[in-house]
């Protein structure tokens, strides 16, 4: 597996640059993680599925906030007009009829109380730290790096295509209605990643900027990987659930 640390040291043309970005996903996206494989194999308990949905809500809920930080730093009105679609996708027209609400429906459909999910207090500390690090990154790094970190959406349709059919086929308590979050996501992710990719290809016009985008995408892949690492550590065979975190046996 590549570390991509010096991938752009000699400069890349646009085709080479895009190829490196796609290779990051091929080697480091979290569809390669053992926890995801367990999910698609039908090997997770309902409690593990609940833990995944509850913890992933923390990530879903921060997406429009990090996108708002990106918007606040963008001077180009055309960029802002395109980027704000992401916030609309997740918040909806009134804050509770978009992607976040659909993820809450997934979590409650798995048997979790809505207030426990929304409150996030039962999420793993590692989840909260990872999500906070992502928000901080998009707030404090350059606009180009923040956009680059969003390029995991290039690979999102792949993991959805693996996850949704497997969940429907292998977990009898999972229904299409519960998984409504995923229905619009491939189209939204393709739209968003096309725009973000075009942006970084146009604006990463020297080796340093190209490397900053590559590093940003690696960082984002690490965030998503770390979240699954934490789930596997806490809810796998070892069962190292930290104090105060969700405990499946307490929810039935």
Automatic annotation (TrEMBL):
Enzyme nomenclature, EC number: 1.3.3.11
Catalytic activity: 6-(2-amino-2-carboxyethyl)-7,8-dioxo-1,2,3,4,7,8-hexahydroquinoline-2,4-dicarboxylate + 3 O2 = pyrroloquinoline quinone + 2 H2O2 + 2 H2O + H(+)
Enzyme type, top EC level: oxidoreductase
GO biological process: pyrroloquinoline quinone biosynthetic process
SUPFAM superfamilies recorded: Heme oxygenase-like
Keywords from the UniProt entry: Oxidoreductase, PQQ biosynthesis
Kinase among keywords: no
Occurrences of domain Thiaminase-2/PQQC (ranges): 21-229
UniProt cross-references to Pfam families, sorted A to Z: TENA_THI-4
Keyword field contains Cell membrane: no
Highest taxon of source: Bacteria
InterPro entries named in the record: Haem_Oase-like_multi-hlx (IPR016084), PqqC (IPR011845), PqqC-like (IPR039068), Thiaminase-2/PQQC (IPR004305)
Pathway entry: Cofactor biosynthesis; pyrroloquinoline quinone biosynthesis
Any GO molecular function: pyrroloquinoline-quinone synthase activity
Function: Ring cyclization and eight-electron oxidation of 3a-(2-amino-2-carboxyethyl)-4,5-dioxo-4,5,6,7,8,9-hexahydroquinoline-7,9-dicarboxylic-acid to PQQ.
Similarity section: Belongs to the PqqC family.
Name used for this protein in its record: Pyrroloquinoline-quinone synthase
Species of origin: Mesorhizobium zhangyense
